[in-house]
Amino acid sequence: QVQLVESGGGLVQPGGSLRLSCAVSGFTIASYGLGWYRQAPGKERELVATISGTGTTTNYADSVKGRFTISRDNAKNTMYLQMNSLKPEDTAMYYCLLANYWGQGTQVTVSS
């Protein structure tokens, strides 16, 4: 059974940082691309960042370029999203995606 479990979300002030993790079980992630998505209330789910199987290629939404960094540790079967200089508009539920599998999400709230 494939499971993706996100963690690391929370409440942070504008300008703050969070590091999200996506731990995968039941599936070896090496050589598979992974992605982070987010969905704010009343909005469609949107792509945040993707990373190739080897980790050598990454892509980011324009809204997070220069602030977010996606990475992966294939030995730990885990993907990460380092989020710096957070803004209120980054508030959303963040999900990880592997093939057709989604995690349950972790809430990120940026507010003073």
Model description:
- By secondary structure, the chain is mostly beta strands.
- It contains no helices and 11 strands.
- The protein has strands at 3-7, 10-12, 18-25, 34-39, 46-51, 58-60, 68-73, 78-83, 92-98, 101-102, 106-110.
- Strands 2, 4, 5, 6, 9, 10 and 11 form a 7-stranded mixed β-sheet that branches. Strands 1-3-8-7 form a 4-stranded antiparallel β-sheet, with no helix packed on it.
- A hairpin with a 4-residue loop joins strand 7 (68-73) and strand 8 (78-83).
- The protein starts with a strand and ends with a strand.
- The mean pLDDT is 96.
Q: Based on DSSP secondary structure assignment, what is the total number of beta strands?
A: 11
Q: Can you tell me the overall shape?
A: globular
- Figure out the total of helices: 0
What integer is the average pLDDT? 96
- In angstroms, what is the radius of gyration? 13 Å
Note the main attributes of this structure.
about 110 residues; four-stranded antiparallel sheet; seven-stranded mixed sheet; mainly beta; 11 strands
What's the quick description here?
Helices cover 0% and strands 51% of the residues.
Write the layout of secondary structure elements.
Blueprint: E1 3-7, E2 10-12, E3 18-25, E4 34-39, E5 46-51, E6 58-60, E7 68-73, E8 78-83, E9 92-98, E10 101-102, E11 106-110
